[in-house]
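A.,

Following up on our hallway conversation. Structure tokens first:
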């Protein structure tokens, strides 16, 4: 049995592990995919302290992973399916999709969030055939072509700018009359002659035969429909917390884990940090801060537990 299990190896999970192992806690990370989380697919990170110039997301996360591994943190590749507290043993049982079980005295949930889908006809059918949720992964396929980006927050603006490295035209489709992203990003977008903002508009469907050929646009103010030719569609309309494995009692109606200021959940000994928690601003530095708080209080919980 471990002192601490950390579920997720993104910025929050890796930071929690770094703090835990340096405090002398025997811990391990359980991660469904490869370490790094969503940040791995971010072309450049410009707002993480300590870097004068933007750093590629994969490079930042590779450094965090290397730091955790240097300190001796094991990272096991498993798909967590559930978690429960064994009151009799005063410990947690984490179950995995392959039927395995892991026991720990305390647990930190750090599985982050995934990109939301728009939920329109053609989205699922053309995923991987013109519909993408990662410009860094797929942008190079659209050299000299036309794409649409759906969204108006920081991620949508950042990815639209990245896509101008390849696409000759980027239609940035947003349902409001102004973007929600940071002003510096809005300024860059609006001054880029390869980006065409399309305000007050939603995508009604994504169309094509064997791959994406166009999108049906609906103006929310006039209800006028039009069809715009595009070769690809990139979706950045927010996030959904990765909490399907969590007990329902931990979650708010949006599926986010409810925590207090110490990152404690409603179950003693169970903590949460990063994008999956209620109130997260979904920034790398915030996830790392959450994780530091969670690890410190997990240490306090374990220390108190020894003296019961």
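Then the amino acids I'd put at each of the 308 positions:
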């Amino acid at each position: 049995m471990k002192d601490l299990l950390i579920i997720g190896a993104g910025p929050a999970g890796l930071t929690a592990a770094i703090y835990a192992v340096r405090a002398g806690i025997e811990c391990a990370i359980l991660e469904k995919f490869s370490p790094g989380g969503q940040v791995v697919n971010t072309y450049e990170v410009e707002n993480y302290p300590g870097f004068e110039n933007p750093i590629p997301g994969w490079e930042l996360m590779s450094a965090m992973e290397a730091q955790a591994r240097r300190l001796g943190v094991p990272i096991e590749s498993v798909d967590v399916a559930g978690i429960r507290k064994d009151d009799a043993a005063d410990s947690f049982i984490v179950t995995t999709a392959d039927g395995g079980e892991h026991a720990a005295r305390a647990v930190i949930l750090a599985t982050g969030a995934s990109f939301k889908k728009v939920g329109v006809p053609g989205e699922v059918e053309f995923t991987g055939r013109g519909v993408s949720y990662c410009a860094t992964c797929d942008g190079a396929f659209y050299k000299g072509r036309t794409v649409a980006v759906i969204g108006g927050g920081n991620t949508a603006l950042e990815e639209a700018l990245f896509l101008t490295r390849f696409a000759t035209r980027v239609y940035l489709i947003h349902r409001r009359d102004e973007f929600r992203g940071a002003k510096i990003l809005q300024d860059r977008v609006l001054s880029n002659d390869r980006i065409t903002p399309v305000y007050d508009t939603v995508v009604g469907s994504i169309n094509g035969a064997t791959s994406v050929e166009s999108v049906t646009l609906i103006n929310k103010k006039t209800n006028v429909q039009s069809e715009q030719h595009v070769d690809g569609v990139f979706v950045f309309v927010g996030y959904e917390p990765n909490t399907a494995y969590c007990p329902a009692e931990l979650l708010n109606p949006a599926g986010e884990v409810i925590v207090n200021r110490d990152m404690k959940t409603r179950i003693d000994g169970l903590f949460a940090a990063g994008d999956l928690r209620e109130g997260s601003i979904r920034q790398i530095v915030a996830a790392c801060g959450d994780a530091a708080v969670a690890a410190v209080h997990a240490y306090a919980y374990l220390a108190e537990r020894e003296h019961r």
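The chain has a mean pLDDT of 96. Curious whether your intuition agrees with the design.

B.
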